C-alpha cells in the first residue's frame, strides 16, 4: 500500500511560524509565495520529520522564537509523526495507539523522495545505475555494453586497416601491358649462352678453313721447291684441294645469330619485373581491402545484434516510465540525455524513478518549480494523478496554481481557485 501525507502542521521551523496544510492525496500541491517567506522551510520540515535527524536543519528553531520547533504529520496509513520539545524528540503512533520510531518510517519513506536534489544532481552514470538497479538488468546490460565496445573497437581497427589498404592500392601504379608473373632472367641468359656457343662453333670452323688454306699454300710452295717430289706433292695437293672444297662449302652457308633482342630483354627485365611487382602489390592491396571490408560489415551486423539485445532487454524490463533507457552507461529519456531534457522532463523522470525505488512511498517533495510554465505545471500535475502520486512542491508565485501561500512564515489561503491538476488547503 502506498503511503502519502494527509495533513501536516509546522511551527517555528527555520522561517516557518505556523503552517497547516492538507495536501491532495494525488497530484500536485504547490506551496507558493514570494522569496524569503518560508516555502522551502516547509519541505525541510517534512524531510526532518520523516527522514530523521540527518535532515535536521543546522538552525532548526526559527530565529527570534523562544518556543522550540513543533512538527506533526498525519500519514494516509494512520501513523501520526511528531517532533516536539526542546530536543525535538520523535514520536510515532500507529492507529492502535502503539508507539514506534524511525525504523518504521524508514520502511516506507524513500530517502530520495524527501531529498530529490540528491538524485537530480547526481551524475548521469549514477542515475543510470539507479535505474538499472530498480529494473534488475544492470549486470546483463553491462555485459552487452562491454561486448558492444569490444566489437566496436575491433571493427574500428579493421576499418582503419581497410582504409590504409585502399589508399595504398589507389597510390600504386598499374601497367596493363606487363605480364602477370615475374620474368626469369636465368632463362634469357641460357638462351644467350646457347647462341654464343653456336657462334663459337662457327668461329672454330672458320679458323679450321683458314688453317687448311695455309696448308694448301704451303703445299704449292713445296711443289715448286721439291720438283723431285712432284708426284707425291701433287697427290697431297689433290687431297688438300678436296678438303679445302669441303671446308669452304661448310663455311659458305653459315650465318651468325643475333643476341641483340635477348640483350635488350635482359636490360629491360628489371623494369618489367618492377611493373609486375607493382601490379601484384596493387591486386593484393585491393584483395586485402575487400577482405577487411567484409569483416567490417560482419562486425556491423554483430554490433547491431548486440544493440538489439540491449533494446529488447530494456523494452521487456519493468521501467518506471515509458521512454526511459540506458545507453553507454547514461540515462536517456525519449532519446535525450539528462542535460538535454527539459526541466519538467527531468522532474518527471526523477519522480518516476524515486517512486519505483520504494513503491510504498507515495509522495515526493519538490523545491523551486519556477522553471515550469502554467501549461507544463498542469500537465505535470495530471501525470502525477494518473500515476496516483502525491507531490508537494514550492514555487515563487502567488497565482491560482498555488494550494497555499506562505507569507512571513504563515500559511494563507490563495484567493484564486486552482486549475485542474493541483489542489490543497488547510
From TrEMBL:
UniProt keyword list: Coiled coil
Residues forming coiled coils: 202-309
Domain called Rad50/SbcC-type AAA: residue spans: 7-273
Keyword Coiled coil carried by entry: yes
Keyword tRNA-binding: no
Protein name as annotated: Chromosome segregation protein SMC
